[in-house]
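Exam review. A common question shows you a sequence with its structure tokens and asks you to describe the fold in words. Practice with the pair below. Do the first one on your own.
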Amino acid sequence: MNKAVLKKLEHMQIPVKHVSEAAQWYASHLGFQVLGISEEHRHAFLQLQEGPMLMLWETNDETYANFTVHGQTMPVLLYNTDQIHVLRDHLIEHGVEITFYQNEGFGWVLKFIDPSGNMWGVIQPNN
């Protein structure tokens, strides 16, 4: 195949424990806009100012949007910000578990766990 057949990343899907609560948490703590929630189908669509949509799927399964490398948990999702220190302070204020926070040379990196157990990554590049 010589020509690329995929155009863009449309949306990402992650598991959550309670779809309505998770959608509200992402809106109030991370700035997502809730585009729609289906209580019947147990999913929601969220959007930031830029990038693909985030789809939340409610599940009782013991599953998370994380993976490990040499035993270290890594986030599937990494976001960009220019307010990483404000975000960290806000998350700590609200009892969110911060697992990593430091300047890695290229920029600041923040990793935290959401209420459903998913690890998130945020990067603020050094300019």
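Now try the second one, then compare your answer with the model answer below.
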Amino acid sequence: METIFTWTADTAMPPMFRRRLPLVRNYPCFPGVGGSIPEMVSSEDSAGSSVAWPTPGGGVLRLPLVVSSYTLGTHVPFRERVEAPAAAGFGGIGLRAENFWDAQATGLDGQAMSELARDAGVPVLEVEYITAWGTAADRDAAQQRKEETVFSMARTFGVGHLNCGLIEKLPLETIVEAFAELCDRAGDDLTIALEFMPYSGVPDLATAWRVLREANRPNSALIVDVWHWARAGMTPGELDLVPAERIVSVQLCDVRRTPMEPMRTESLGFRLPPGEGYGDAVGLVRALQARNVRPRLVTVEVISDELVAQGVTHAAKVVAAAAHRVLAGASRG
């Protein structure tokens, strides 16, 4: 990942936005020999917008700290979705197709959204979320519209990878074939990042990696999310199955002591800030770093109805502070 910095010339911009602004180019990268993706690094740092990610041998990467779309709630005006993360010190934001459509309905096009976000110092660095791609029957008009929107968003915002998951529980060979077709539809310029979820058709890391390996598409990668990791009962040793370079995104959050039923309800409204639960977010980050995983970004995905009810500015500040504590704790290990 190449990071270039510029100074804003807009003297009328609010004081919290008058700072060094990162222009992050998140290019796609494809696996080489052995299934590994060449590393992407941020070449410089901007105070408050990136985080340290230690690597074996004493090196340190500077990666964007991104707030996911769900962390700020589902119905948030675009300008508020930009201003709250900027005030909390994030280096980028995530957008779902639904957020994009909502902003379009207010008269903003993709270019206007991109400019507003970049001018605030929080460019769009994550786009999502493609689901229901497993069978032809599931790929109805609504699914196809959403899929094409996410592809378009990635290209509009210059994001090299996009997030996907599969809720439906299908035979593995069906999932593999459908995932390969999804990668083909995305095109060589976009990487499809698959997220395993314990209640889904891809319930754990081993299954996710098998899907990638058997689909054999160069524009495919993996997401590791603390909530899904913990609730799937993953252990650090299971990371050894996967080439480190195939993990392109790490999502920070945490879990409650006791799982809720249905599990998906907990995932979509009752997560905790990273380091404040029982998922050992620090331990997972250390395990990833020890294996030389070099993600393109670190995302904070704390989907919490309780936090959002207290306001998006409050939610952004709480989860940003928690993420910094987790990353600092992992570095001290």
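Model answer, second protein: The chain is about 35% helix and 20% strand. The mean pLDDT is 88. Full marks require stating both points clearly.
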